[in-house]
Amino acid sequence: MDPTADLDGPALDFANCTYTVKVKQKGATGKSPRKLIANVSASIPSGVVLAVMGPSGAGKTTLLDMLMLERCGGVPEGVVTLGGHRLTLDLYMKHCAVVTQHDCLWWSLTVAEHISIALALYQPELTTSERIAYLDKLVDDVGLRSCMHIKAGNALFKGLSGGQMRRLSVAKQLLGEPSLLLLDEPTSGLDSASALAVMRDLRSVARRDGCT
């Protein structure tokens, strides 16, 4: 399956992105407009990982919400395109995936079980042998081979490490073969070694699959 079949490549472009909210000023009777981000533009070709970095309050989440077509009470402006086409909700649902800041995993399921269930939902047309081959390749790609049969765990049950949980969250979204993968703080809470491993995996997948 080619995730970019109806796109002119998976490159992401956004131009003059501005997000304005109304805030109440001290001593004022009404609300005044305030720009949380102003005229932000970038062009990210296929096979490339872009990191948006900055201090707290710099507007990183606001920009990410705009790229995810979220409406959070403000007024977005600008143009966002994927593969040369304006990013609409239909295009987003078909070609994009999101890894949220907090891992959403079932504590009692192993890595292999998480991926098997997600694969059955994303690609039900695959045969049993094809699913096994796909699973084996994916766990190698994201560095989860050594913990395939370990449960995710939670605060009361010891399971995967923080870095392994992030990799599993990424792996689940990659099963949909997205052209664009958006990640909200993928390294937050990880030690330096785990953060480096996660970013290396993402760069490897982007280069191999040509996604953004």
Write the layout of secondary structure elements.
Blueprint (H helix, E strand, L loop, with lengths): L11 E13 L6 E14 L15 H8 L7 E8 L2 E2 L2 H7 E4 L11 H12 L5 H14 L20 H13 L5 E4 L8 H18 L3
Parallel strand pairs: 5-6
Antiparallel strand pairs: 1-2, 1-3, 3-4
Helix pairs in contact: 3-4, 5-6
- Could you give the order of the helices and strands? EEHEEHEHHHEH
Radius of gyration: 19 Å
Helix content: 25-40%
- Helices, by number, come to 6
Shape: globular
Strand fraction equals: 15-25%
Kindly, what is the distance between the CA atoms of the first and last residues, rounded to a whole number of angstroms?
17 Å
Please state the structural category.
alpha+beta
Oligomer: single chain
Overall mean pLDDT: 87
* Strand order within the widest beta sheet: 2-1-3-4
Q: What does the main sheet amount to?
A: 4 strands, antiparallel
Q: What is the number of beta strands?
A: 6
Unreliable stretches (pLDDT < 50, length at least 5) are: none
Structural account:
The chain is an alpha+beta fold. It is 34% helix and 21% strand. It has 6 helices and 6 strands. It has helices at 60-67, 89-95, 111-122, 128-141, 162-174, 192-209; strands at residues 12-24, 31-44, 75-82, 85-86, 96-99, 180-183. The strands form 2 sheets. Strands 2-1-3-4 form a 4-stranded antiparallel beta sheet, covered by helices on one side. A two-stranded parallel ribbon has the order 5-6. The chain is globular.
